[in-house]
Design a protein that fits this description.
3-stranded parallel beta sheet; 37% helix; TIM Barrel; alpha/beta
């Protein structure tokens, strides 16, 4: 029954009484995040901001190894306006809104716009700690694993502090030393004991000479997450392979702004590869209670991909699966939407109203700011009150163990 659909109601009315949980936001890391916490022997080597030969500020690791970040990665200026085009790529931490980098300011902004809790992801070390830019160049020796581990642990320590200071309203996802399964499991356990509610991880370790995520090598991590009821998050751009969607998709003749638009669009769909591989690998039969989230990828394309995957599995595979692709998704996967309005309600119902989450992507280029609910009012107005409550709040509350 859809008799409680609410066309014409204001955004404030649509979210009234709902403790909204925003499942994808980012932190513009303070310049001293690592240096202020690093032991003396690592202070000059952990991630930090330095000026290059031309005087431009860049995030580096291990001296002058560029991490691929030259700005605060925020389109929200200190004065509240949003950047036009690619202007934000030159903005540094002092140029952007304090809520981009400071926990107390972020919570204050959440109160202002009507958000109860936010999930946080990184910028500097890559969305899943995969490393970027010259750190993976064949012209340079591999980055020291101990330095990578120290940098990962410092990030998680800082995020644990931020979560505690926010009274569990800011919930960063733990970054793992994915290049070593024993270290990854140990760090995951440490972060879970700190109260962190999820992990994010490189989606393509096989491009680094490791087993892919369906291999037995990864079973200890999946067993831990399943036993602790912790979701595994795959943020778009969470590997070197998926980052190439941004660089390789636009034609060379496109302007920088058009390259951002085209590359960003294709990055959303890059998670189709991850979802299809997880389902087709059979790993969901082995770990039937393990939960996966496709982060910052939208939902409109998901019904087609799942239908297409099912068709292909039916016609080309001799393996007999316990469930259909859609049934696997509904049992163990979640998708996130933000700017989608047209056919949003239809997509949510096709996927399953219990399997969709809401995000804003604050403060990145596609973020819903400063009026997150006004921008999606038409889409969520087509949902019933119960459906809105699920996709805006209770689905995420159950998945990430958030008190509402």
């Amino acid at each position: 029954m859809l008799d409680s659909v609410a066309p014409g109601r204001s955004a404030a009315e649509l979210i009234k009484g709902i403790k909204v949980i925003d499942v994808d936001t980012h932190l513009s890391e303070p310049h001293d995040m690592w240096t202020s916490r690093a032991p003396a022997k690592w202070k000059d080597r952990v991630p930090q901001v330095r000026a290059d030969a031309n005087g431009n500020l860049r995030w580096v690791i291990d001296g002058q190894r560029y991490l691929g970040v030259s700005s605060a990665c925020s389109v929200v200026h200190r004065d509240g306006r949003q950047a036009e085009g690619v202007d934000f790529t030159s903005w540094q931490i002092d140029d952007v809104h304090p809520a981009c980098s400071q926990g107390k300011a972020r919570v204050a902004l959440m109160d202002e716009i009507g958000v109860h809790a936010q999930i946080l992801y990184a910028n500097v070390l890559g969305f899943a700690g995969q490393g970027r830019g010259e750190t993976n160049s064949a012209a340079l020796p591999p980055l020291d694993d101990e330095l990578r581990l120290i940098s990962t642990q410092i990030f998680n320590d800082a995020m644990g502090e931020m979560q505690a200071e926010s009274n569990d309203r800011l919930l960063p996802m733990a970054m793992l030393p994915w290049w070593d399964i024993k270290l990854a499991v140990a760090e995951a356990e440490r972060c879970f004991d700190m109260g962190m509610r999820g992990i994010n991880i490189n989606s393509d370790p096989h491009t680094h000479g490791m087993q892919d995520l369906s291999g037995e090598y990864w079973y200890p991590l999946w067993e831990l997450c399943q036993d602790r009821n912790i979701p595994v998050n795959f943020h778009i751009g969470a590997s070197d392979a998926s980052m190439s969607w941004y660089g390789d998709t636009p034609w060379p003749s496109q302007s920088p702004a058009h390259k951002l638009s085209i590359g960003g669009t294709m990055m959303f769909i890059s998670n189709a590869r991850v979802i299809c591989n997880i389902i087709a690998s059979g790993m969901l039969d082995r770990f039937p209670k393990l939960k996966f989230v496709s982060v910052e990828s939208g939902i409109g394309w998901l019904p087609f991909i799942l239908e297409a995957l099912q068709y292909q599995m039916d016609t080309s595979s001799s393996h007999r699966y316990e469930l259909t692709a859609l049934e696997y998704f509904r049992r163990q996967m979640f998708g996130c939407f933000w700017f989608e309005n047209r056919d949003c309600a239809d997509s949510i119902r096709k996927l399953g109203v219990d399997n969709v989450l809401f995000e804003t992507d604050f403060p990145h280029p596609t973020c819903l700011y400063p009026d997150p609910f006004g921008k999606v009012a038409d889409g969520i107005a087509a949902l019933t009150e119960d459906e809105r409550r699920k996709v805006l709040s209770t689905n995420a509350a159950g998945l990430y163990n958030i008190a509402i």
